[in-house]
Amino acid sequence: MSCSKPLAIDLFCGLGGWTEGLLKEGYDVIGFDIERHEYDGEKYPAQLVLQDVLTIHGSQFKDAALIVASPPCQEYSYMAMPWSRAKEIERQYLSGERDRAKLTALFDACFRIQREAIAAAGRHIPLVVENVKGAQKWVGRSRWNFGSYHLWGDVPALMPMTARAPTKSNGLDWGRFSKTGIVSKHWALHAAASKNDPGSGETGIKLGGTWFHDYAQGQGPRNHNSKSNKRKAASARIAKIPFVLSQHIARTYYPIEECCA
Predict the structure, then answer these.
(1) With the C-alpha atoms ordered 240, 243, 245, 248, is the resulting torsion angle positive or negative?
(2) Is residue 2 domain-resident?
(3) Which tens digit of pLDDT belongs to each residue from 167-218?
(4) Number of compact structural domains in the chain
(5) By the 8 A CB rule, do 130 and 70 touch?
Protein backbone atom coordinates (compact mmCIF):
# COMPACT_ATOMS: atom_id res chain seq x y z
CA MET A 1 0.00 0.00 0.00
CA SER A 2 1.41 3.40 -0.95
CA CYS A 3 1.36 6.29 1.49
CA SER A 4 0.10 9.74 0.62
CA LYS A 5 2.51 12.62 0.51
CA PRO A 6 2.19 15.36 3.13
CA LEU A 7 0.65 18.60 1.87
CA ALA A 8 2.46 21.93 2.03
CA ILE A 9 0.98 25.34 1.23
CA ASP A 10 3.17 28.07 -0.27
CA LEU A 11 1.64 31.54 0.10
CA PHE A 12 2.90 34.36 -2.17
CA CYS A 13 4.72 31.56 -3.96
CA GLY A 14 6.30 33.58 -6.80
CA LEU A 15 8.82 31.44 -8.67
CA GLY A 16 8.66 28.72 -6.03
CA GLY A 17 11.82 28.96 -3.93
CA TRP A 18 10.04 27.42 -0.95
CA THR A 19 8.34 24.88 -3.20
CA GLU A 20 11.53 23.52 -4.77
CA GLY A 21 12.82 22.33 -1.40
CA LEU A 22 9.41 20.97 -0.41
CA LEU A 23 9.08 18.97 -3.61
CA LYS A 24 12.58 17.56 -3.20
CA GLU A 25 11.66 16.27 0.26
CA GLY A 26 8.50 14.54 -0.97
CA TYR A 27 5.67 16.97 -0.28
CA ASP A 28 2.69 17.70 -2.46
CA VAL A 29 2.66 21.49 -2.76
CA ILE A 30 -0.03 23.99 -3.68
CA GLY A 31 1.10 27.54 -4.29
CA PHE A 32 -1.02 30.67 -4.04
CA ASP A 33 -0.23 33.97 -5.71
CA ILE A 34 -2.16 36.89 -7.12
CA GLU A 35 -0.48 36.44 -10.51
CA ARG A 36 1.41 33.88 -12.56
CA HIS A 37 5.18 34.41 -12.66
CA GLU A 38 6.86 33.18 -15.85
CA TYR A 39 10.13 34.78 -16.97
CA ASP A 40 12.53 33.47 -19.62
CA GLY A 41 11.46 29.87 -19.06
CA GLU A 42 11.27 30.14 -15.26
CA LYS A 43 7.90 29.40 -13.70
CA TYR A 44 6.30 28.03 -10.56
CA PRO A 45 7.06 24.26 -10.38
CA ALA A 46 3.89 22.90 -8.72
CA GLN A 47 0.11 23.34 -8.68
CA LEU A 48 -0.67 27.05 -8.72
CA VAL A 49 -3.85 28.77 -7.54
CA LEU A 50 -4.30 32.37 -8.64
CA GLN A 51 -5.96 34.02 -5.63
CA ASP A 52 -5.44 37.06 -3.44
CA VAL A 53 -4.09 35.68 -0.14
CA LEU A 54 -6.22 38.22 1.73
CA THR A 55 -9.33 36.36 0.54
CA ILE A 56 -8.15 32.94 1.76
CA HIS A 57 -9.71 31.30 4.83
CA GLY A 58 -7.26 28.99 6.55
CA SER A 59 -9.82 26.25 7.20
CA GLN A 60 -9.21 25.00 3.67
CA PHE A 61 -5.68 24.06 4.77
CA LYS A 62 -6.74 21.80 7.64
CA ASP A 63 -4.99 18.82 6.00
CA ALA A 64 -1.71 20.66 5.49
CA ALA A 65 1.48 19.55 7.23
CA LEU A 66 3.23 22.89 6.74
CA ILE A 67 2.52 26.44 5.56
CA VAL A 68 5.28 28.70 4.22
CA ALA A 69 4.98 32.28 3.01
CA SER A 70 6.97 35.16 1.54
CA PRO A 71 4.77 38.28 1.57
CA PRO A 72 5.90 41.08 -0.76
CA CYS A 73 8.64 43.16 0.87
CA GLN A 74 9.14 46.04 -1.55
CA GLU A 75 7.66 48.75 0.69
CA TYR A 76 9.64 47.63 3.76
CA SER A 77 12.81 47.64 1.67
CA TYR A 78 12.04 51.00 0.07
CA MET A 79 11.45 52.75 3.40
CA ALA A 80 14.79 51.46 4.66
CA MET A 81 16.66 53.13 1.81
CA PRO A 82 18.41 56.50 2.35
CA TRP A 83 16.15 58.47 0.00
CA SER A 84 14.10 61.48 1.07
CA ARG A 85 10.91 60.07 -0.45
CA ALA A 86 11.45 56.76 1.36
CA LYS A 87 11.94 58.53 4.68
CA GLU A 88 8.83 60.65 4.12
CA ILE A 89 6.72 57.54 3.55
CA GLU A 90 8.18 56.00 6.71
CA ARG A 91 7.33 59.16 8.67
CA GLN A 92 3.74 59.07 7.40
CA TYR A 93 3.27 55.48 8.61
CA LEU A 94 4.80 56.28 11.99
CA SER A 95 2.64 59.38 12.42
CA GLY A 96 -0.58 57.66 11.37
CA GLU A 97 -1.02 59.68 8.18
CA ARG A 98 -0.84 56.37 6.35
CA ASP A 99 -2.68 53.28 7.58
CA ARG A 100 -0.13 51.02 9.24
CA ALA A 101 -2.61 48.13 9.17
CA LYS A 102 -2.50 48.19 5.37
CA LEU A 103 1.30 48.11 5.46
CA THR A 104 1.32 44.86 7.47
CA ALA A 105 -1.91 43.35 6.09
CA LEU A 106 -0.27 40.65 3.96
CA PHE A 107 2.15 39.67 6.71
CA ASP A 108 -0.67 39.53 9.28
CA ALA A 109 -2.81 37.45 6.91
CA CYS A 110 -0.28 34.61 7.07
CA PHE A 111 -0.75 34.21 10.81
CA ARG A 112 -4.53 34.59 10.55
CA ILE A 113 -4.59 31.79 7.98
CA GLN A 114 -2.46 29.62 10.27
CA ARG A 115 -4.83 30.20 13.21
CA GLU A 116 -7.82 29.29 11.07
CA ALA A 117 -6.10 26.17 9.74
CA ILE A 118 -5.19 25.03 13.27
CA ALA A 119 -8.74 25.59 14.50
CA ALA A 120 -10.15 23.52 11.63
CA ALA A 121 -7.56 20.75 12.00
CA GLY A 122 -7.56 20.47 15.78
CA ARG A 123 -3.75 20.24 15.73
CA HIS A 124 -0.80 22.55 15.28
CA ILE A 125 0.19 23.36 11.70
CA PRO A 126 3.61 25.04 11.54
CA LEU A 127 4.07 28.28 9.63
CA VAL A 128 7.35 29.86 8.51
CA VAL A 129 7.21 33.39 7.06
CA GLU A 130 10.13 35.01 5.23
CA ASN A 131 10.73 38.70 4.68
CA VAL A 132 13.48 41.35 4.76
CA LYS A 133 15.33 42.85 7.70
CA GLY A 134 13.49 46.14 7.21
CA ALA A 135 10.16 44.47 8.07
CA GLN A 136 11.22 44.13 11.71
CA LYS A 137 10.39 47.74 12.49
CA TRP A 138 6.77 47.07 11.54
CA VAL A 139 6.05 43.42 12.42
CA GLY A 140 8.50 42.65 15.22
CA ARG A 141 11.92 41.09 15.45
CA SER A 142 12.58 38.06 13.27
CA ARG A 143 13.41 34.78 14.99
CA TRP A 144 16.36 33.99 12.74
CA ASN A 145 17.93 35.04 9.47
CA PHE A 146 19.60 33.12 6.68
CA GLY A 147 21.70 35.93 5.29
CA SER A 148 19.26 38.46 3.85
CA TYR A 149 16.28 36.17 4.43
CA HIS A 150 14.63 36.86 7.80
CA LEU A 151 12.19 34.34 9.27
CA TRP A 152 9.18 34.57 11.58
CA GLY A 153 6.82 31.96 12.99
CA ASP A 154 7.74 28.34 13.74
CA VAL A 155 11.44 28.67 13.02
CA PRO A 156 13.39 25.51 14.01
CA ALA A 157 16.00 25.78 16.75
CA LEU A 158 18.65 24.29 14.47
CA MET A 159 19.18 26.06 11.16
CA PRO A 160 21.76 25.81 8.36
CA MET A 161 24.77 28.10 8.47
CA THR A 162 25.56 30.67 5.79
CA ALA A 163 28.85 31.96 4.46
CA ARG A 164 29.62 35.64 4.85
CA ALA A 165 28.86 37.67 1.75
CA PRO A 166 31.33 40.11 0.19
CA THR A 167 30.82 43.83 0.71
CA LYS A 168 31.49 44.71 -2.90
CA SER A 169 30.17 43.19 -6.12
CA ASN A 170 30.77 44.05 -9.77
CA GLY A 171 32.58 47.20 -8.69
CA LEU A 172 29.64 48.46 -6.63
CA ASP A 173 30.23 49.40 -3.00
CA TRP A 174 27.13 48.16 -1.20
CA GLY A 175 28.43 49.44 2.13
CA ARG A 176 26.49 52.66 1.57
CA PHE A 177 23.30 50.62 1.71
CA SER A 178 24.20 48.99 5.03
CA LYS A 179 21.67 48.91 7.87
CA THR A 180 18.82 48.93 5.36
CA GLY A 181 16.08 46.42 4.68
CA ILE A 182 17.99 45.27 1.61
CA VAL A 183 21.58 44.99 2.80
CA SER A 184 22.50 44.46 6.46
CA LYS A 185 25.83 45.35 8.07
CA HIS A 186 27.40 42.00 7.21
CA TRP A 187 25.49 41.12 4.06
CA ALA A 188 25.39 42.50 0.56
CA LEU A 189 23.17 42.01 -2.44
CA HIS A 190 25.04 40.52 -5.35
CA ALA A 191 24.72 42.68 -8.45
CA ALA A 192 24.51 39.89 -11.00
CA ALA A 193 25.68 40.77 -14.47
CA SER A 194 23.50 38.21 -16.22
CA LYS A 195 19.74 37.81 -16.12
CA ASN A 196 20.34 34.07 -16.32
CA ASP A 197 21.95 33.98 -12.88
CA PRO A 198 19.89 32.05 -10.32
CA GLY A 199 17.41 33.98 -8.22
CA SER A 200 18.99 33.22 -4.87
CA GLY A 201 22.27 31.79 -3.68
CA GLU A 202 23.13 28.94 -1.37
CA THR A 203 24.87 31.45 0.93
CA GLY A 204 21.77 33.47 1.72
CA ILE A 205 22.58 36.36 -0.60
CA LYS A 206 19.62 37.75 -2.49
CA LEU A 207 20.31 38.03 -6.21
CA GLY A 208 18.35 39.99 -8.74
CA GLY A 209 19.58 39.28 -12.24
CA THR A 210 20.45 42.58 -13.94
CA TRP A 211 18.11 44.56 -11.68
CA PHE A 212 20.66 45.85 -9.16
CA HIS A 213 23.31 46.09 -11.84
CA ASP A 214 21.23 49.06 -13.04
CA TYR A 215 22.72 51.08 -10.19
CA ALA A 216 26.10 50.82 -11.92
CA GLN A 217 24.53 52.57 -14.91
CA GLY A 218 22.97 55.28 -12.76
CA GLN A 219 19.54 53.67 -13.00
CA GLY A 220 17.51 52.84 -9.92
CA PRO A 221 13.97 51.53 -9.40
CA ARG A 222 12.52 54.85 -10.56
CA ASN A 223 13.82 54.13 -14.06
CA HIS A 224 11.51 51.14 -14.50
CA ASN A 225 7.73 51.01 -14.23
CA SER A 226 6.61 48.89 -11.27
CA LYS A 227 4.51 46.75 -13.63
CA SER A 228 7.25 46.17 -16.22
CA ASN A 229 8.27 42.58 -16.90
CA LYS A 230 11.87 43.45 -16.11
CA ARG A 231 10.99 44.73 -12.68
CA LYS A 232 8.61 41.85 -11.95
CA ALA A 233 11.19 39.29 -13.01
CA ALA A 234 13.89 40.92 -10.89
CA SER A 235 11.62 41.12 -7.84
CA ALA A 236 10.61 37.46 -8.23
CA ARG A 237 14.23 36.34 -8.49
CA ILE A 238 15.31 38.44 -5.53
CA ALA A 239 12.49 36.99 -3.42
CA LYS A 240 13.23 33.38 -4.32
CA ILE A 241 14.15 31.36 -1.22
CA PRO A 242 17.55 29.60 -1.34
CA PHE A 243 17.19 25.86 -1.90
CA VAL A 244 19.27 24.91 1.14
CA LEU A 245 16.90 26.89 3.38
CA SER A 246 13.67 25.56 1.86
CA GLN A 247 14.97 22.00 1.98
CA HIS A 248 15.96 22.34 5.64
CA ILE A 249 12.50 23.61 6.64
CA ALA A 250 10.89 20.84 4.57
CA ARG A 251 12.95 18.15 6.28
CA THR A 252 12.34 19.58 9.74
CA TYR A 253 8.56 19.46 9.45
CA TYR A 254 8.15 16.31 7.37
CA PRO A 255 5.50 14.26 9.24
CA ILE A 256 7.23 10.88 9.49
CA GLU A 257 4.31 9.38 11.43
CA GLU A 258 2.03 9.81 8.42
CA CYS A 259 4.22 7.63 6.19
CA CYS A 260 3.68 3.93 5.82
CA ALA A 261 5.98 1.60 7.68
Answers:
(1) positive
(2) no
(3) 333 333 333 333 333 333 323 333 332 233 334 444 455 543 333 344 334 4
(4) 1
(5) yes
